[in-house]
Amino acid sequence: MKRILIVGGGTAGTMMANKLRKALDAGEWKITVLDKEKTHYYQPGFLFIPFGIYKPADVIKPKSTFIPAGVEMLYEEAEKILPEDNAVQLKNGQQLNYDYLIVATGTSLRPEETPGVKGNLYYKDIFDFYSIEGATALGKKLRSWEGGKLVVVIPELPYKCPVAPLEFIFLAEAYFTEQGIRDKVDLTYVTLMSGAFTKPIASKMLGELLEEKNINVVTDFYTEKVDNEKKQLVSFDERTVDFDILTIVPVNMGSKIIENSGMGDDMGFVPTNKHTLQSEKYENVFVLGDAANLPTSKAGSVAHFAAEILFDNLMHSIEGRPLTASFDGHANCYIETGYGKGALIDFNYDTEPLPGTFPLPGIGPFGLLKNTKINHYGKIMFRWMYWHILLKGKELPVEPLMTMAGKKRNPIDLNK
Amino acid sequence: MEKTISGQNLSFSEDGYMTDFSAWTEDIAKELAKEENIELTDKHMEVLKFLRKKHEAGDSLSIRSVGKSGIVDIKGLYQLFPGGPLKISSKLAGIPKPTSCV
Ligand SMILES: Cc1cc2nc3c(=O)[nH]c(=O)nc-3n(C[C@H](O)[C@H](O)[C@H](O)COP(=O)(O)OP(=O)(O)OC[C@H]3O[C@@H](n4cnc5c(N)ncnc54)[C@H](O)[C@@H]3O)c2cc1C
Asked: Could you tell me which of B35, B47, B33, B50 has the C-alpha nearest to residue B77?
């Protein structure tokens, strides 16, 4: 029997397992998913934990719930990929052979890559909201905090869900207002980028929102270290930012297994054909989700759109036909902005986020690059869709490739 | 945008990055560096050549990757190209403006 091996059973791997099991003859193809953890985390929900909006139980389910019958699920850590031998070596010494490999190992958080983060202040005054532990510890801290300087810092690129730190600071601003201590809190957003976001029109809209909410922004700040004694961020060009609470986006790198296998770029992401989603080096290796080095956002929505393309190309490859399905880098991200409102961006490799309506031209219901209540409900609904539609590999009422319908090329009044 | 530098007619993007990779020479780099108030040393040149090599191979460029190159550490890179090490060095290396993909 032939085997498709999926390394990583997170958002991307789980979706693929569901899609493939439905399509492939169980007598001919064995599908195996490998993951080192038994728990599936709804990562977008981490954002809400520090503010008590979600509890940890709201974002956790057993992985096994989402793995369909007829798929072999192994809870083992992969040590190394041996692409020349079509095999994956496990930590326990065992080897699994494959006909096709799908790499879906996501990102791994490396807080230790920023000197001073994992010192005395770690989880006392320095936190993250990219892990359940960090988000929970930060929530505890905020509940008894009486005010001071709260700093959010992005030390390195790329990182998953590029809008998440913006959402965090918007939600923090609203939280402190509701707590009645906004006047005692100084909020600062520190980024190595030259603006709030990389794409110009969205950056302008989001930059204006930050200003409106009285949040300080420090740009082009490349963090060298955190000085624990002075409670300061220090950049390579010797600028400093003081903090009482530091919330860091831990350096995101690819999984160790990619490095171990010599299959990654500088940051441990796998060089992947941005249209076919096939590995640049190995014909029977495909890459889905955050593990790929695609020039688009690392996000669950991207993995979802890419999954449809990868599925088509894998089927073509199995049938010996050329890989004609072509991914466009489509990303669709809700941005929580606080006070029950949200914004939405929709873009791809070639088209930056533009204002307009989504998914129906002129109707919506969602407003692109607009701050509205309905966009916030989109984000809240996303959790339900994630568990019930996305992971199961079902189709959303949104096309995988981006469309220009509903988008406006010439941005007008962004506040409407 | 067109400019004549060390006798050559060169074209540049709106933000001042050379558009023809193959037209680059060390002399051009030296002239461009003057506009940034930088006196190019051998160390500078090593960085520029490293960037060109990476760019030609289609690799993505980051300050971190230069820091790991063994030529200079990140702190040193900031001293060589104060203000915006990757943007300025890319400009002098005759490669396109670095994009941060998000
Ligand atoms: C705070 C936060 C907010 C976010 N908000 C949004 C949002 O609003 N919208 C959105 O679309 N996306 C959002 N995301 C991003 C989204 O969660 C990720 O992009 C998505 O989960 C990526 O899926 P993946 O399968 O590539 O990686 P993951 O879901 O992270 O899965 C990778 C899996 O691989 C396993 N693994 C890794 N290495 C090995 C190994 N060696 N052996 C065995 N198993 C291994 C891991 O255990 C893990 O289960 C957010 C993320 C965070 C952190």
From this structure: B47
Cα-to-centroid distance, A210 and ligand 1 (Å): 27
* pLDDT at site B100: 62
**CB–CB of A233/A190 below 8 Å?**
yes
- Nearest-atom number in ligand 1 for the CA of A290 is 26
Residue span of the structural domain in which A308 resides = 2-109+253-318
Q: Does A171 contact ligand 1 (Cβ within 6 A)?
A: no
- Residue bearing the bigger pLDDT, B83 or B78: B78
3-state class (DSSP) for residue A106: coil
| CA separation for the pair A306, A286 (Å, rounded) | 11
Assigned domain for A339 exists: no
Q: Which residues lie below 8 Å from residue A379, measured CB to CB, with a gap of 6+?
A: A44, A334, A336, A342
Domain count, chain A: 2
Q: How far is the CA of B4 from the centre of ligand 1 (A)?
A: 50
Tell me the per-residue pLDDT of A150-196, one tens digit each, with 9 for 90 and over. Answer: 999 999 999 999 999 999 999 999 999 999 999 999 999 999 998 88
Closest atom of ligand 1 relative to the A168 alpha carbon = 1
Judge: B59–A266 Cβ closer than 8 Å, yes or no.
yes
Burial A230-252 (b: 16+ CB within 10 A, else e): ebbbbbbbebebebebbbbbbbb
Q: What is the pLDDT of residue B8?
A: 87
- Residue B79 CB partners (closer than 8 Å, separation 6+): none
Tokens of A216: 């300080």
Q: Span A90-96, mean pLDDT?
A: 97
| Across A355-379, average pLDDT | 93
In chain B, residues with a C-beta closer than 8 Å to the C-beta of A267 are 62, 64
Q: In the prediction, which pLDDT does B98 show? A: 85
With contact defined as beta carbons under 8 Å apart, do B86 and A192 qualify?
A: no
Residue that terminates a domain, selected from A250, A280, A310: A250
B32-82 pLDDT, tens per residue? 999 999 999 999 999 999 999 999 988 878 888 899 889 999 999 999 999
User: Which residues face A338 on adjacent strands?
Assistant: A341
Domain with A242 in it: what CATH number? 3.50.50.60
Run of H or E residues at A170: helix A164-178
Separation of A283 CA from ligand 1 center, angstroms? 24
Does residue A323 form part of some domain? Answer: no
- Structure confidence by residue, pLDDT tens digits, A332-353: 999 999 999 999 999 999 999 9
In a domain, A207, yes or no: yes
**CB atoms A197 and B102 under 8 Å:** yes
ipTM: 0.85
Among A267, A300, A318, where does a domain finish?
Answer: A318
Instruction: Looking at the structure, tell me whether residues A117 and A237 fall in a common domain.
Output: yes
- Residues A16 and A104 reside in one and the same domain: yes
